[in-house]
Amino acid sequence: MDRTLFALSLGLAGLIFIPGSLHAEPQCAAHQLVADQLARKYGEARRSIGLASDNTVMELYASSQTGTWTMTVTLPSGLTCLVGSGDNFETTKDTLPAKGNPA
Asked: Which of 49, 63, 78, 94 could be a cystine partner for 1, CB 3.0 to 4.6 Å?
């Protein structure tokens, strides 16, 4: 599940580079500013992180109180951009298939 979520996250992260895909202008700022605003406005804290082959960092922030979540991507330059957000976040404990068994 973790690898699937990570792969899906990176696919979504790639959307920010397609002009006009999610917003007319990407919503980007310094990483600390984004993290602080997500904590202050939505009570969200970082729940997971992953590194892509192009050195972009995907982070998933969520609030266990409100169920809101936000996905960000931080570029090698340090600029952090919002990729997506939503409601009803929950943590799961899915098991991975044994190695060598296709899912």
From this structure: 94
Backbone angles phi, psi at 44, to 5 degrees: -90, 140
Measured CA to CA, the distance from residue 65 to residue 44 in angstroms comes to 9
What is the pTM for the complete model shown? 0.69
Q: Which residue shows structure tokens 């406005």? A: 41
Q: Flag whether 94 is in a domain.
A: no
What are the structure tokens assigned to 73, written together? 């991507």
Q: What domain count does the chain have?
A: 1
Phi-psi region of 4 (alpha: psi -120 to 50; beta: other; left: phi over 0): alpha
pLDDT digits (tens, 9 = 90+) for 29-69: 999 999 999 999 999 999 999 999 999 999 999 999 999 99
In the prediction, which pLDDT does 101 show?
Answer: 61
